[in-house]
# Entry
Amino acid sequence: MGSYPKTVQLKNGTNVVIRPMTADDLERSHRFFLALPADDRYMLRVDVTDREAVLLRMDPSPAYDHYRLVALAGEVIVADATLYQPRQGWKRHTAEVRAIVAHEFRDRGLGALLFHELFQEATRRKVERLYGMIMSQQEAARRIADALGFRVELVLPDQRRTLDGELHDVAVMTVSLKDLWRRLEDKMLAMDGHGRERH
Amino acid sequence: MIRYPKAFKCRDGRVVAVRPLAPDDIDRLMTFFADLPEEDRLHLRVDVTDRETVKQRISPPPHWSVLRLVALAGDRVVAEASIEHRTYGFESHIGEIRLIVAADYRRTGLAHYLCRQILAHGITENLEKIEVHLMEDQPAVIRFFEKLDFVKNGILEGFVKDIHGKDHNLLVMSLRT
# Structure
């Protein structure tokens, strides 16, 4: 595990604190989800307006180890990112990544920072392949995944039923952790000392 | 609700009893898995020669509904079939099935019968889609599911490892109920 809590500065100069989620974060987590726009909430796995569903989400699963980080502005959770890895079995070298960022904290680099933390944890856990499961309406998520080198390997038809009762296809996007780090290093080499692309 | 136990007569005349797995079946199950050829065990999700792993495998996780059937010839487990699904959340309309048959009970109609039983259970649970996940290098198993109208959704490369740590492609097949 990385050393936490850590304070990071976002693109607009705001500081947030990143740390693992704890059991004490239940109310903060529930408030975070209640504050999400309805359009975002409807694409989540459970009805997160229901406190019991949020509590269930925090419960450790016997089959999966979930490593969850939260980003806080003061006492307010502004992002939640998770690495889900099977504890054993044939997929033990894979992990799913998921992240949600509060609307007003988007486009500030927070998602990228959280993913970077998750990728480091995945490396420590000897994960070889990462994947994300993205619905077609999740355009921002798809763009981020594309930029990181994830590619669509499989589309599962009618895989998710959103809160409005509609069924949606899900694209399973995967990347090898080795390829992902290589891509991130290439991007850094392509930048000057001020974080801008060299020309 | 489907009633058990049931008796199934295989094509070769042998009769097996089919019923839900009980907690005291663990020893019978361990013998069943130990008797599987290694080539079959290579294609399974976990190391089924490890008792703790098998115990965990048959313990229903919280917020999942699982029906696990065994077929018995006398006191000997000769097949295991299961269907499981989440009880909440946006994928709770999907069930996943698994099926393993002892080598000497293949091509007897037993696999087909067990599949029909667990699919019927899936329908009573209002599942709308049934998935099966398997290693791509099992052409006979793929043909079996294709005959039951499962379609291939696609492959995830190197997504699963066998018990020796070798990578295999994962094939996902599904059936709309």
